[in-house]
Amino acid sequence: MEGVSTMAGEKPETDPFLTALEVKIAALQQLRESYIAAASVGAIGPVSGLEIGNVVVSGGGSAAGTSSTVGVGASTGPIELPTGVFRDKGLADAIRMYLSIAKRKQTQKEIKAALMEGGLATTAEFFDATLAGTLHRMKRKGELLQFKDGWDLAESYPESFRQRMAQSSDPPKRRRKRKAVKRADKGQAQKAAPTKPEKAATEQPTLRVVS
Questions:
Q1: Global pTM?
Q2: Alpha-carbon span 144 to 49, nearest angstrom
Q3: 134 closest CA partner among 45, 3, 143, 125
Q4: Within this chain, do residues 122 and 165 fall inside the same structural domain, yes or no?
């Protein structure tokens, strides 16, 4: 047909978006080949539990030919909740359900807003404190993970990643403080120890004059 510059199925001669895609695909293919070559000689360690942005790598994958799974979190944006979804739920159950729907980390403020919007019933006078206590209690039980940018379900991450998170959150040992306490106790004990009495001066023998 006249007036048609390109045939069906033929890519446009100048398409900036398509050009950018082809450049990125070529770069990714080069990266893939480089990774396979490096992994085949053992130059790359295991990547299980590695988190890159919203992507979490789990399983094997340290060498070429091994398989690994990636979990991709949902993009940021509003989360649609059914009306009254939390009406018949307890606080902990509502938190679990909401984080499973969100599929990404949520701050305490975001969790609170979602629970209120979803119709959670509560009689707590200070709901913020109640919510914070429940989140930390679920964290101690191993149900939640706390990040700098929010909370998430522990089951969404590999076991190795959860173990590292638990180790990093353990309080440091107070060895120095204990040592200082021992020194203070030792000093007090030395002060309280009775002083040794000084030796009494030896008595001089009395001389008798015999007439």
A1: 0.47
A2: 16
A3: 143
A4: yes
| CATH number of residue 103's parent domain | 1.10.10
In the chain, which ranges are continuous DSSP H helix? 16-40, 91-102, 108-117, 127-140, 159-169, 175-192
Residue 185 lies in a domain: no
The model's pLDDT over 33-48, given as tens digits with 9 standing for 90+, comes to: 777 777 776 666 555 5
Query: Of the segments 1-10, 54-63, 126-135, 167-176, which one has the largest average pLDDT value?
Result: 126-135
pLDDT at residue number 7: 53
Encoded amino acid at 172, one letter: P
Q: Which domain holds residue 116?
A: 91-169
CB count, 10 Å around CB of 14? 7
Would residue 67 count as lying in a domain? no
Q: Is residue 198 part of a domain?
A: no
* Per-residue DSSP letter, 6: S
- Judge whether 177 lies within some domain: no
